[in-house]
Design goal:
Length: 435
């Protein structure tokens, strides 16, 4: 099932054997923690996402291929159980069932996924566990019998990622990545090793910063030989302007790919273009437009192999509350060059009144919008907590705030964020734009 907001998790018990049918890797990658973030971020204190119906294009028609819906929620409106279904003939049948638990701050703690075996739900086939700050601790994939485990230091920085395979009823080390940081706690080095009769370094990656801004990433392929690097340049506003991807050839750095970025006046990404300098006909141009609230309206992709020909389109629609109600994609047919339907999702929302809705929606306001360096939370009567959350569901910052206090957001990257304001009288979530 494509383009469905599903949650898929796997089993500590690993009851699914390697011989059973496995989903393709693209699907496994999609069915991950980020789908929960979609539920987390696309809700406010007043609206929750109830259901997503998905469709596959058939030339100019749409044929339903699946659905996902929330079965139960906690008192704050976050899903506790989510079920997905897939079209079988003329009707929908069960596919997956996800169970979620949360920390007190409403960030996801664990999720487990079960698969429908035709008559009942299976043992857990996918499992993920997170820290309260949103960083992943552990992931176990029953389909592929793999495990990924992250270790953190006292400051919450990831120091190691360990990858294991389940062989002969035991976890066996396969590879690991070691992380080091500079004096400013910025990621400085990544050392990828494989367990082959002892840990052997395969790849070394180093990151260079200027005034705390990433300017270069260098990759050294230790065992296979060769080096590559990416150099970054920025606009005066701090937004990324260009990436140059280079290979070291006979002692000289040769640029292979150039990626350029352009932005709207509000600081939202409007164009991303990439060109292969060995063959400039290989290139892609991505164009984005937004509505007045900073939500994406359209996304177009152009191919430079045919003089920048438009070959892919995505359109989004929203209701009056800026909840997304539909998106659909079109792609150009190879032979006819006509645009045909690809994928479509339709979203159903409902009003939610829970333990958090104790303050009126219009009593709390954020200004200015868009904001560049500072925001203020208007309507506060008491000392409160402000959590800033990005579009992936990760908590970026937390502040203890008072009435009319200016909150410094100058270090945030340009884009759309959610402000979760926790007051003694309740909690409300508002969206704002960082320019």
């Amino acid at each position: 099932m494509k383009n469905i907001f599903i949650i898929i998790f796997i089993a500590i018990g690993l009851a699914v054997s390697a011989q059973e049918l496995k989903p393709n890797q693209e699907k496994v990658d999609f069915l991950s923690a980020k789908t929960v973030a979609k539920h987390y971020n696309s809700r406010s204190a007043e609206w929750v996402l109830d259901r997503t119906d998905t469709y596959t294009g058939a030339n100019t028609e749409w044929l339903q291929d699946g659905a996902e819906f929330t079965v139960t929620r906690n008192g704050h409106g976050f899903p506790l159980t989510i079920q997905t279904q897939v079209m079988n003939g003329a009707s929908l049948e069960n596919e997956y069932f996800a169970t979620l638990t949360y920390y007190q701050n409403d960030s996801v703690f664990e999720y487990n996924l079960q698969e429908w075996n035709g008559s009942a739900w299976s043992d857990v086939v996918f499992y993920e566990k997170f820290r309260s700050d949103g960083q992943k601790i552990e992931s176990i994939n029953g389909w592929y019998s793999t495990r990924s485990y992250n270790t953190f230091d006292a400051q919450g920085k990831k120091t190691e990622n360990l990858e294991q395979d389940y062989i002969n009823n035991a976890w066996v080390d396969f590879a690991r990545t070691l992380y080091t940081y500079n004096a400013n706690n910025l990621l400085e080095g990544e050392e990828y090793q494989q367990a082959a009769g002892g840990w052997t370094t395969k790849v070394n990656t180093t990151h260079t910063y200027t005034n705390l801004v990433l300017t270069e990433t260098n990759i050294n392929y230790v065992t296979e030989g060769g080096q590559s690097r990416t150099q970054y340049s920025y606009y005066p506003s701090g937004k990324i302007q260009q990436e140059l991807v280079q290979n070291l050839e006979t002692g000289n750095w040769v640029t292979k790919t150039r990626i350029n970025y352009e932005y709207t006046a509000e600081g939202l990404l409007s164009v991303k273009s990439s060109v292969n300098l060995d063959d400039p006909s290989f290139g892609l141009r991505h164009e984005y437009t937004y509505n007045a609230y900073g939500n994406e309206d359209t996304y177009f992709v152009y191919d430079n192999s045919d003089n920048w020909t438009l070959f892919y389109k995505r359109f989004n629609t929203y209701d009056a509350n800026q909840n997304i109600t539909e998106f659909y994609t079109l792609a150009q047919a190879t032979r006819t060059r006509a645009f045909v339907n690809m994928d479509r999702s339709v979203f159903t929302w409902s009003s939610f009144v829970g333990v958090e809705k104790q303050i009126k929606k219009n009593t709390i306001k954020i200004a200015p919008i868009p904001a560049e360096n500072f925001i203020q939370i208007h309507g506060l009567e008491n000392k409160s907590t402000l959590e800033i959350i990005d579009l992936t569901g990760k908590q970026i910052a937390q502040f203890e705030i008072t009435k009319k206090q200016a909150i410094d957001i100058s270090k945030l990257k340009a884009g759309v964020y959610f402000a979760k304001v926790i007051t003694p009288n309740g909690t409300i979530i508002k969206k704002f734009i960082k320019r």
